[in-house]
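Repro:
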Amino acid sequence: MKLIVKLLCILACGLIGLSVVVPFISASPVDVTISRNLMEGGHGTIVLIIAGVGLVSSLFGWFFLSALSGVAAFVMFFIEKGSVRDILGIREVDALINLVTQNGTGYYLLLVGAIALVAFSIVGMIVKKVL
């Protein structure tokens, strides 16, 4: 059971790492699509470090540190969500944000990966105490 939890944590870290290179958000204000990934947004390196720490801690069975990495990835999700929109230059027109922006695959990969890493790490901590 412990091996399965480790593998699930590693998979969640892979999702977080993959979210860096795929499009995070795109905007189409005037028939021109602008797409940004996390590396272009400025925080991609931090997200990769978080994924790396989560990966190493999952491999060694340090599920508390792995859970903290998941929480950090979740925090980065909200930070990056705001900063990418600032980079696109559409922060001033809040009413149009929903009309011209679309969340990309990276948006959802980071969100799902962060939630999964926290959840599987908690399961890992429980399994570690029980077994």
